[in-house]
From TrEMBL:
UniProt protein name: Uncharacterized protein
Record key words, sorted: Membrane, Transmembrane, Transmembrane helix
Regions that span the bilayer: 40-63, 75-98, 110-131, 152-172, 209-228, 249-270, 285-307
Superkingdom in the source lineage: Eukaryota
Length: 332
């Protein structure tokens, strides 16, 4: 039963327990979708977890093998680690919601906290990847790999600690509410009585969503401009469009990835600003779809950071070949 029609403006749910005015979508909206059977949901969760785990483990193994390179590889390694943690946390949260049809202390406080931290940390780390690519293009032969690794070893823990601390309000913001229509069901709901806190939440969520989006959008443009200018400077008679075409062909993998992430962010960005006041059930479904599109990169690091790169693809092939040799030796 959804009593959205009797709820205050911008609140929805069977007891008006949900809102997207101040924070993101709640995973518990799955419970308001009667057309989604348990079997389909469990099957989807299992496939997502298995697929994401395989992809991320292969990516982690590849980046660990290549970890002696510049800081960019360290960023990519931690992007993949965070993506795998996110895949596990989201799968566990959905499994608990669907299997128990109710929220408990673990999923309402700890898992909701991790769900708030992991996606924004993931996108922050991807922004670091593309920022360093731009720095490499700018410094070129003067780029210091040792300094890059040292910077990455400082930036990564700072970002992790920052996102863990800035989201510490979340466990204190949530509360377990009993459903009067179904006494066995509890809902994990945000308490928005504190205006100062809700204002802070709105500002932080907006900043964490927009800043990586802008960086992922602009860093490839800056990199293209730098590389094109370098080509024009090295060959005086070369035309601009010819140089630009060469740069796009040479660095198409590095350029495409941030724009893939940008495209996956756009639906969630749009619904956050255009659909932040949900009054109809179909709006809730659209918000949920946009949110899951936003989460697609977490289990797909293999396709985002390994396969588009000839260097990393070659290293992945070496891992595969060594694994085959090891398995054959074990058989004898």
């Amino acid at each position: 039963m959804n009593s959205t029609a009797q709820c205050p403006s911008c609140f929805y749910g069977s007891i008006c327990q949900f809102t997207t005015l101040y924070s993101g979508i709640s995973m518990e909206t799955f419970l308001d979708m009667p057309f989604l059977s348990k079997e389909i949901a469990f099957g989807g969760i299992a496939v997502m977890l298995a697929f994401g785990t395989i992809c991320n483990i292969l990516s982690i193994a590849t980046f660990c093998q290549a970890s002696k390179g510049r800081g960019n590889r360290i960023y990519r390694l931690w992007v993949t680690i965070v993506g795998q943690c996110g895949t596990i946390v989201f799968a566990l949260r959905l499994f608990l919601i669907i299997s128990r049809q109710s929220s408990g202390i673990l999923d309402c406080f700890l898992l909701e906290y991790l769900i708030s931290v992991i996606p924004v940390l993931y996108y922050s780390l991807t922004a670091c990847v593309f920022i360093e690519q731009t720095v490499v293009a700018h410094k070129h032969l003067h780029f210091d790999k040792e300094s890059s690794r040292h910077t990455a070893s400082l930036v990564i823990p700072v970002l992790i600690i920052y996102h863990l601390i800035v989201n510490l309000y979340i466990p204190f913001q949530y509360q377990l509410l009993r459903d009067p229509y179904k006494p066995t069901r509890s809902w994990c709901s945000s308490d928005h009585q504190n205006y100062s806190l809700t204002r802070f939440v709105t500002i932080i969520n907006t900043m964490h969503l927009i800043l990586p989006f802008i960086l992922n959008l602009t860093s490839p443009i800056v990199m293209i401009m730098i590389l094109t200018k370098d080509k024009l400077d090295s060959k005086q008679n070369r035309r601009f469009w010819s140089s630009l075409k060469d740069v796009l062909n040479t660095y198409k993998g590095n350029i495409a990835i941030p724009y893939v992430l940008t495209i996956l962010t756009i639906p969630y960005l749009v619904v956050n600003f255009r659909l932040n006041c949900i009054t109809q059930s179909w709006q809730n479904a659209i918000y949920l779809i946009a949110y899951f599109i936003y989460l697609i990169p977490l289990p797909t690091s293999l396709f985002l950071f390994i396969l588009p790169s000839p260097t990393f693809t070659e290293e992945l092939c070496k891992i595969y070949q060594r694994t085959i040799v090891y398995v054959r030796l074990r058989q004898y």
